[in-house]
Amino acid sequence: ASGTVAIAPNGNPEIHAEEFEVLSECPLKEENGYPFTPKQSHPPDYVREYPHLRSRIDYMAAVFRLRHRTLTAIHNIWTKMTFSITPILTPNDCEGAGETFKVQPDNEALLKEMKRPENPLEESYFDKKVFLSVSGQLHLEAMSYGLGNTYTISPAFRAENCKSPLHLSEFHMFEAEMGFVDDLEQLTSFVEKLVKETTNVVLERNSEDLALCHKKFGDRSFDWIDKSWVSLSYEEAAKILQNHKDKFTTILKDDEGFSKEQEMFLVQHCNSPVFLIEWPEKIKPFYMKQSSNDSTKVAAMDLLMPDVGELVGGSLRENNYEILKSKIPAGLEWYLELRKFGGFPTGGFGLGIERYIQLLTGVKNIRDVIPFPRYPHGLSKSYT
Amino acid sequence: ASGTVAIAPNGNPEIHAEEFEVLSECPLKEENGYPFTPKQSHPPDYVREYPHLRSRIDYMAAVFRLRHRTLTAIHNIWTKMTFSITPILTPNDCEGAGETFKVQPDNEALLKEMKRPENPLEESYFDKKVFLSVSGQLHLEAMSYGLGNTYTISPAFRAENCKSPLHLSEFHMFEAEMGFVDDLEQLTSFVEKLVKETTNVVLERNSEDLALCHKKFGDRSFDWIDKSWVSLSYEEAAKILQNHKDKFTTILKDDEGFSKEQEMFLVQHCNSPVFLIEWPEKIKPFYMKQSSNDSTKVAAMDLLMPDVGELVGGSLRENNYEILKSKIPAGLEWYLELRKFGGFPTGGFGLGIERYIQLLTGVKNIRDVIPFPRYPHGLSKSYT
Question: Which GO terms describe its cellular component (chains A, B) (predicted)?
Answer without folding.
Answer: mitochondrion
